[in-house]
Design brief:
Number of helices: 7
Helix content: 40-55%
Strand content: 15-25%
Shape: globular
Oligomer: single chain
Order of helices and strands: EHEHHEHEHHEH
Structural class: alpha/beta
CATH architecture: 3-Layer(aba) Sandwich
CATH class: Alpha Beta
Strand order of the largest sheet: 2-3-4-1-5
Length: 171
């Protein structure tokens, strides 16, 4: 993982878990959030691709500010699948508000496949992208996972074993 993980820094440091599909990014992020909960901290899991719709509903209901204040009090926020779908200007502005409220105060764990150097293009506005990245990178620890997909690797192993058993039965 690069450097040693220090559990006591979890409630205030950002963590970024990256690499290919199926390597356990979401599992690791949720395990870190669960660890924080066991230490008496609060945690919340949000999938970024679904967040835009939830934010539109909150704005429409007039409850965005109240939700943002509550979110700022959550000790560990997991933002899963960062950068996997298109993002509009309103969501981009809301993400800046979320990140700004948490910056150097609370932990934000981001899982992503998109290399950080491509985040500016995904966010679509260089000024907002600079602001978000500046706040996120102040106190961060990066975890990069390597290896074969846990999903396809496990399924491929089961399929190969099944094929071998079928071939042996025919012999």
């Amino acid at each position: 993982m690069g450097s040693e993980f220090e559990p006591r820094e979890l409630p205030v440091r950002g963590h970024y878990v990256s690499d290919s599909t199926g390597l356990g990014k979401t599992w690791l992020a949720c395990a870190l959030a669960q660890y924080a909960c066991r230490q008496g901290h609060s945690a919340l899991y949000l999938r970024v691709p679904r967040l835009a719709e939830e934010l539109r509903i909150l704005h429409g209901a007039g409850s965005f500010r109240r939700w943002l204040q509550q979110l700022a009090k959550v000790d560990v926020l997991v933002l899963d699948d960062w950068g996997t779908g298109a993002i509009d200007a309103a969501t981009r502005a809301d993400l800046l508000e979320i990140v700004d409220d948490r910056s150097a105060q609370r932990a934000t764990i981001i899982t992503h496949q998109l290399p950080i150097e491509h985040w500016h293009a995904w966010l679509g506005d260089p000024t907002v992208a600079d602001a978000i990245l500046d706040r996120l990178m102040q106190h961060c620890r990066r975890f990069t996972l390597d290896g074969e997909s846990r999903r396809t690797g496990r399924n491929a192993g089961v399929a190969n074993k099944s094929n071998k058993t079928t071939q042996e039965a025919k012999s």
